[in-house]
C-alpha cells in the first residue's frame, strides 16, 4: 500500500514537471509573454477561426527603434529593462481578445481577432502615442486577413515588410 502511495506521489510530481515544462516552452523567459512558438500556434488557430467565421484578423509586427544603440550605449541590462517595459505596456494596451507575444529579439507581435484595417490603424496610432512618454519609439507593420493575405506566410510577410519600411523612414 505504501509503495502504491509513493508511486502515486511520483506520478503527480512528474505530471507537475511536465506541466511546468509545457508552460516554459511557450513563454518568453525575459518578458513573461508568450513566445514565438505560442504565437505561431495561436495565429494558426485564430486564422482558421477567422476564415470559418468570415471575420477579419489583424497582425501587428512591432520593432523597438534604436534598440541596438540602447544596448551598446547603456548595456544589456538596460536593453532587457526596455524590452520588459515595452512588453508590460503592450499587455496593458491590448484588448482582452488580443494576444501579444515576443517574436524574437526586439520584435513583438499582436494578434487582433475581428479587427479590421481601420481599427488596426487607429490602434497603432494610439499605441505609438502612448509609449512615447517612456522614451521609446516603435516601428509597426500591420496586415489584415483577408485583404492582405490568405495564409500565415502572406500576412506575416506583409506585416514584416511594412514594419521594416516604417523603420527605414
Report on the structure:
There is one protein chain. 59% of the residues lie in helices and 17% in strands. The chain is α+β, with helices and mostly antiparallel strands and 169 residues long. Strands 2-3-1-4 form a four-stranded antiparallel sheet, sandwiched between helices. Helix 3 crosses helix 4. The termini are far apart.
List keywords for this structure.
single chain; 169 residues; alpha+beta; globular
Short description:
This protein is of the alpha+beta class and 169 residues long. Helix content is 59%, strand content 17%.
Structural topology:
Elements: H1 2-25, H2 36-53, E1 57-64, H3 67-74, H4 76-93, E2 99-104, E3 107-113, H5 117-131, E4 138-145, H6 152-168
Antiparallel strand pairs: 1-3, 1-4, 2-3
Shape designation: globular
Number of helices: 6
> SSE order, as H and E?
HHEHHEEHEH
How helical, in percent, are the residues? 55-70%
The helix/strand class is alpha+beta
Calculate the terminal CA-CA distance, rounded to whole Å.
72 Å
Oligomer: single chain
Portion in beta strands: 15-25%
Spatial ordering of strands, largest sheet: 2-3-1-4
The beta-strand count equals 4
Poorly predicted runs:
none
CA gyration radius, whole angstroms: 19 Å
Major sheet summary line: 4 strands, antiparallel
Mean pLDDT over the full residue set: 91
